[in-house]
Design brief:
The complex is a heterodimer of chains A (about 290) and B (about 300).
Chain A (H helix, E strand, L loop, with lengths): L27 H27 L4 H8 L2 H34 L5 H7 L2 H4 L2 H12 L6 H4 L10 H26 L2 H9 L4 H30 L2 H7 L9 H10 L3 H34 L2
Helix pairs in contact in A: 1-13, 2-13, 3-8, 3-10, 6-8, 6-11, 8-10, 8-11, 9-10, 10-13, 12-13
Chain B lengths: L3 H9 L4 H30 L3 H10 L1 H34 L5 H13 L2 H12 L6 H6 L8 H11 L3 H13 L2 H8 L4 H30 L2 H7 L9 H10 L3 H37 L6 H7 L1
Helix pairs in contact in B: 2-14, 3-14, 4-8, 4-9, 4-11, 4-13, 6-8, 6-12, 8-12, 9-11, 10-11, 11-14, 13-14, 14-15
The chains are: A mainly alpha (about 290), B mainly alpha (about 300).
């Protein structure tokens, strides 16, 4: 469906003419008004409540809340694990997208549908299920434990949960772009004597790189904020396997609203930055595939 | 791969068979490990002590009230976001106006906010120490640690789903058909019902089922505002957590298996909607002069 971004959106009807702001289609004021109202009530006002709340803290209090060693360790884990998981997702997401677009094999439609499972499966279910698999007595864990590999109740578990959560993003951003790449270019490269690998790395890869980067950023952004799947498998030891969202929960449970708010504002700022990065990447991608 | 000329061209833009089989093998192994195995684990763990124990776990009154609360929450949150999604897509896709890109970004914002932060903002608004806390307490209205808070948090996390699905779809379809309807004398509502809606129906269905799956499965945001009162403010995912932490593994996975079934149904509906949509596009493409818009989507 994303192929449809190719902007044939003939905006003639909607474009306000400079003089009279006349629109052929009715409903602009109603829908825009409702959109802005609902957006403000549900999203903007509550989010600004969060930001305003931090101003009741002194700078020292704020700093103490967001930069204590335990919180710093949580940032490190959250960022490190999200980065590792997003990188794994880039490699395997790219592979999956490639296989789904270019090859045919039995069960392809089922695999294609299954890719969206992490979007549809509640995170808590994913969390307990991955834990059951990877714990020392689980299906997979029982074979790994004797080898000295522990994938549950430590930072490894966090990475695995985040790989699961972020899996669809890269596949679903790369897939439509790969479907749209022009075979003629590859044929030209091959007939000019390029090897298959050269064709891939010089012709195909550059055209899907923006999509790959977008998928990476989306998986990363989602992983930063993820809570449900991680807390079951992480073990949640302070300084070792405690993620940032859990810090907020912990502070709330101790009625430390100010501390919770401070950490939440840091997370909000990070997610806002990531959102802008993703938007810029998508604009770049659209320019790459649409224009030129 | 028969037919001399064609097959030669084919060969030139694909990989050697052993490369293909390796790539497919690795991809399938990854899918098996990360997607199939966790899904299978949910059902085997739920049925570990037999079907009787499974049914018994689901008959428990607390499980029932969790299921009921989850259904109520989704029944409120999804229609709210449906109306918003259609309105937002209409104004963003059909018109040009200043600040449109910014508005689109804001609509996406809840996607990138951590669910825990999403729950926290409502605690800061309506909780005992929140902005409206004292006023709500004086009027004996409970939002946090009660059902309204759970609904609000769910509305927040599922906010962009339907709008996100509809905006690119409606942008790609353009305005010509609606304009024609208006010129022929249709009212705005008639244009929407008879022209726009049939065009966006598959995208709409897709958005609604994804929104519904997330609404029923949301954990982080809901867990902050719920207060975990058994039998009263526990949704299904929260009930799963409680049972799991109490080492009632079979019961936890039994409730989880219902959510996993919901996820599977969601995937099936989504795939069917996608295939139907593709087929309609392909059918429309057979009639180029009458349906130029459909052609543009296909390209």
């Amino acid at each position: 469906m994303s192929a449809s971004i190719a902007v044939p959106s003939a905006p003639s009807a909607g474009v306000p003419s400079r003089s009279g702001n006349k629109k052929v289609l009715p409903g602009f004021n109603l829908t825009l008004g409702y959109t802005v109202l609902y957006l403000s009530l549900i999203v903007l006002i509550p989010l600004s409540a969060l930001v305003l709340r931090t101003f009741t803290l002194s700078l020292d209090q704020f700093w103490a809340a967001i930069a204590s060693p335990r919180v710093l360790a949580a940032y490190r884990l959250t960022f490190g694990a999200s980065l590792a998981a997003a990188l794994v997702n880039v490699v395997f997401g790219m592979l999956l997208a490639w296989v789904l677009v270019r090859y045919s094999f039995p069960g392809k439609k089922i695999v294609d549908a299954l890719v969206d499972l992490p979007f549809a499966l509640p995170t808590a279910v994913a969390g307990i299920s991955l834990t059951a698999l990877l714990a020392g007595n689980g299906w997979v864990g029982q074979y790994l434990e004797p080898l000295g590999i522990k994938l549950a109740f430590n930072a490894n578990g966090v990475v695995i949960a985040l790989i699961f959560i972020g899996l669809p993003f890269v596949v679903r951003t790369v897939q439509p772009v790969l479907e749209d790449t022009e075979r003629e270019l590859e044929e030209a490269a091959m007939s000019l004597g390029a090897t298959r690998w050269q064709t891939f790395s010089r012709v195909i890869f550059p055209s899907i790189a923006p999509a790959l980067l977008t998928g990476f950023a989306m998986a990363f952004a989602r992983a930063i904020g993820e809570y449900g799947s991680v807390i079951f498998i992480a073990g949640n030891m302070p300084m070792v396997s405690e993620i940032t969202p859990l810090i907020i929960i912990g502070k709330l449970e101790q009625y430390d609203y100010a501390g919770a708010t401070a950490v939440a504002v840091v997370m909000l700022a990070i997610s806002f930055i990531l959102l802008l990065v993703i938007n810029a990447l998508q604009a770049w991608q659209r320019k790459r595939s649409g224009g030129a | 791969m028969s037919g001399g000329n064609l097959s030669q061209r084919r060969v030139s833009t694909t990989e050697a068979p052993w490369v293909r089989f390796t790539l497919i093998g690795v991809a399938l192994a990854f899918v098996l490990l990360f997607l199939v195995l966790p899904l299978a684990a949910v059902f085997t763990e739920a049925l570990r002590k037999g079907f009787g124990a499974y049914v018994e776990a689901l008959k428990e009154p607390d499980a029932w009230s969790a299921i009921r609360l989850t259904l109520i929450t989704a029944a409120i949150a999804v229609p709210l976001n449906l109306v918003f999604g259609v309105a937002a897509a209409w104004c963003i896709a059909k018109y040009e106006f200043r600040g449109k890109a910014f508005l689109t970004t804001l609509v996406d914002l809840p996607f990138s906010v951590s669910p825990v932060v999403a729950g926290l903002i409502y605690v800061l608004m309506f909780g005992a120490q929140g902005w409206f806390g004292p006023w709500l307490a004086a009027h004996d209205i409970k939002i946090i640690f009660a059902v309204p808070g759970i609904v609000l948090a769910t509305v927040f996390v599922t906010f962009p789903f339907i709008a996100r699905e509809l905006i690119p779809l409606m942008q790609a379809q353009g305005n010509e058909e609606e304009q024609a309807a208006i010129v022929l004398g249709a009212t705005g509502w008639q244009t929407f019902w008879y022209v726009t809606l049939p065009n966006i129906k598959w995208g709409l269905i897709y958005g609604v089922i994804l929104c519904n799956a997330r609404a029923m499965g949301e954990f982080g945001a809901v867990s902050v505002v719920s207060g975990h009162i058994r039998g009263q403010t526990n949704t299904m995912p929260l009930h799963v957590e409680i049972l799991y932490n109490e080492y009632q593994s079979v019961a936890a996975f039994a409730v989880a298996s219902l959510l996993a079934l919901l996820a599977l149904v969601t995937l099936v509906i989504k795939s069917v909607a996608e295939w139907r949509h593709e087929r309609e596009l392909a059918a429309a493409a057979e009639l180029p002069p009458e349906r130029p818009v459909a052609l543009e989507i296909l390209q």
